[in-house]
Amino acid sequence: MDLGLKDKKALVTGGSHGIGLAIVQALREEGCKVGSISRREGCDVLRPADINKALKEFSNIDILVNNVGGGGRWGDENPLATETTVWREIYEKNAMVAVRFTINSIPYMLKRGWGRVITIASIYGREGGGRPWFNMAKAAEISFMKTMAMHYKGSGVTFNSVAPGLIAIANTTNEIEGGTPEEVASVVVFLASEKANLVNGACIAVDGGEGRSF
């Protein structure tokens, strides 16, 4: 199946390892010209100046994948024992980074009449079970994609989120059974494709049935 991705320009945040790296590789296999940014590549997405620099370097993109995030293990198991600075930093690292990259990337997409914004959230953005600061940030990402989809419907630009469950990532998890980054990447590639024109505002769970939400 030709997904219509040849020569499309894509930017993946947090693309140096795990799910992000798998997405970079999968998009390249489909013929995309892919840029990747991460701290390892000299970009701290918590610094607005670094975000602006990255967006100047990777301008006029067709596909944005917001993958930077994390922090699900930060803080104490007891919310009352966790400083509010943790809540704020997790929200900033996940939701607000996605907001900044999105609002600075879509003007070109809207002008062109075609584009894809895909945000990697979590099943804990759809249900309880994780630490509350992480749930809050991931729920915000899912809501952000949905409301952007509703606002820009009919523009040719789609906004979707992907909610992975337990994913086994090399050097970060030991002896666990879970999905693979490549399985998440396959869903992202489809959402980025011309075959997914009608998929807009969706949150796709990639969890093998682990999640409890509908």
Structure notes:
The chain has 214 residues and is an alpha/beta fold. The chain has a single domain (9-206), classed as Rossmann fold (3-Layer(aba) Sandwich). It has 5 helices and 6 strands. A 6-stranded parallel β-sheet has the order 2-1-3-4-5-6, with helices on both faces. Strand 4 (115-120), helix 4 and strand 5 (157-164) form a beta-alpha-beta unit. Helix 1 (18-29) packs across helix 5.
Question: What is this structure's SSE topology?
Answer:
Layout (H helix, E strand, L loop, with lengths): L8 E5 L4 H12 L3 E5 L10 H10 L5 E4 L17 H29 L2 E6 L11 H20 L5 E8 L16 H12 L10 E4 L8
Parallel strand pairs: 1-2, 1-3, 3-4, 4-5, 5-6
How far the N terminus sits from the C terminus, by CA atoms, comes to 29 Å
CATH homologous superfamily identity:
NAD(P)-binding Rossmann-like Domain
Main sheet record = 6 strands, parallel
Low-confidence stretches: none
Strand content: 5-15%
Strand ordering within the main sheet = 2-1-3-4-5-6
Q: Roughly what percent helix? A: 25-40%
Rounded to an integer, what's the Rg over CA atoms? 16 Å
Q: What is the tally of helical segments?
A: 5
Shape: globular
The number of strands is 6
CATH topology: Rossmann fold
Mean pLDDT: 92
**What is the domain tally?**
1
Query: What is the CATH C-level name?
Result: Alpha Beta
Protein name: SDR family oxidoreductase
Pfam families: adh_short_C2
Family: Belongs to the short-chain dehydrogenases/reductases (SDR) family.
InterPro entries: NAD(P)-bd_dom_sf, SDR, SDR_fam
